[in-house]
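Objective 1.3, modelling of assemblies. Example input:
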Amino acid sequence: MVKKILLAAVPLTLILAAAVWFFFFRQTEESIIRGRFREFSEAVEKKGPEGGITAVAAARSLGGFFAERTSVDVDGLTWLNGDYSPDVIVANAFRARAMFSRLSLEFNDIELEIRENTARAFFTAVLEADPKNRRPVREIRELEAGLRKVDGKWVFESFRVRAIIKK
Amino acid sequence: MKLIDHEAHEKEGKEALEPGGFRRLIHAFFFPKMVRSFFIRFLTVVIVAWVFFKFICLPLVVMGGSMLPTYAERGFNFCWKPAYWFSEPERGDVVVMKYGSDKVMILKRLIAKEGDTVEFRNGKLILNGRELDEPYIQGPCDWNLPPRTVEKDHYYLVGDNRAVPMRRHIFGQMHKRYLQGVPLW
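Predicted structure (tokens):
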């Protein structure tokens, strides 16, 4: 009896494991892009005061997420619109991170449209930050990002930022 | 293999009917015997509760007074998600929308759908050129907003408390993918 149960349990467990792997752990372009969002979020995060070298390393790591030219279009902040190189983004990120004692950027509701080497992502971003000597900030925006696969790595090449609720 | 200890169940049931049985039942409830059937029951309750409160009926606390007087500030409620699983919300419904993350929702009244034209004129809501009767609004309102057409796949949401200045009130059109459900009461 025990032998029969074991004989039945082994293939069932294998099928279950294969299904779990297929639905949750299989590496697809979609899962890779979602992983890039997680990595980006971790790279932006600042948990507390950091030293100069750590701050430079954190800002520099952000450069690897962007294409040679990244276009930015922010609703209501026209002075921010334009094309940026990774170096400019790193410099701006360094300055911006220095303004906050704590910073986190969370991406939610990510919807992806993937073509061969390009992808469009629609998502919401929640920025939570503690500016030095000011009240905490919580900003929510709706974003559309364009991504391109360069040398086997997905990088951002455009951002359109919109208010999530618009009067 | 016996998954549920029927004998233990029957014994518990009989004991409950005996004199002083109720006390024993209460004792058994708070200090259960660590038998297999208890762990199965416990696990079932935890899983069912998790699924129910995570995907079907989300507990929420109303922060802010944008829905006054319909919903009081700091009031407790639930978001009933199945409400729009098989239907679309109607104009006038109070809906719960996801606001950035799973942790924050906004509670607003849906006043217009895609293609509708919305305008505020001296505090009166004009929907598709007609003044809307809104009995749920109390207090003065002096809002003025030029007409705008609701975009495709969007809802136009406004709170009931229009006594606050317009610039301080979070309202406007929002994509329908953020729709979560309705408040339970």
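Residues 118 and 148 of chain A are 4 Å apart (CA to CA).
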